[in-house]
Amino acid sequence: MANKSALILFAHGARDPRWAAPFQRLQAMTQASSPELTVELAFLEFMTPSLPELAAQLVANGCDNITLVPVFLGQGGHVLRDLPSLIEAIRGNHPGLQFRIVNAVGEDETVLQAMRDYCLKSL
């Protein structure tokens, strides 16, 4: 890894592999916009890699700074309960790792405006 920072897009996951397609497109678009940055996708359940697996892989590749974006519409139970316990375990396994978590993507005003525009465009 050329740099020591990474951006993780964190999604729920599903049993149907087709569910991941928009998240994979988001990851590819984000990576293309910032080729100098490592952009990865991790899942809470049903799909791989899991967040702990991905964090361990990034640390093994020399990463020491991760920003995590929950690709969820809101700050529900998974973001408020499950994610903090995962982060606590990751920090315990990798004490030198800096880990920053931002709000769920659906909490951002520009994301909501884009969704509004999409809804209105459908009329």
From TrEMBL:
<protein>
    <submittedName>
        <fullName>Sirohydrochlorin cobaltochelatase</fullName>
    </submittedName>
</protein>
<keyword id="KW-0479">Metal-binding</keyword>
<dbReference type="InterPro" id="IPR002762">
    <property type="entry name" value="CbiX-like"/>
</dbReference>
<keyword id="KW-0456">Lyase</keyword>
<dbReference type="GO" id="GO:0016829">
    <property type="term" value="F:lyase activity"/>
</dbReference>
<dbReference type="Pfam" id="PF01903">
    <property type="entry name" value="CbiX"/>
</dbReference>
<dbReference type="GO" id="GO:0046872">
    <property type="term" value="F:metal ion binding"/>
</dbReference>
<dbReference type="InterPro" id="IPR050963">
    <property type="entry name" value="Sirohydro_Cobaltochel/CbiX"/>
</dbReference>
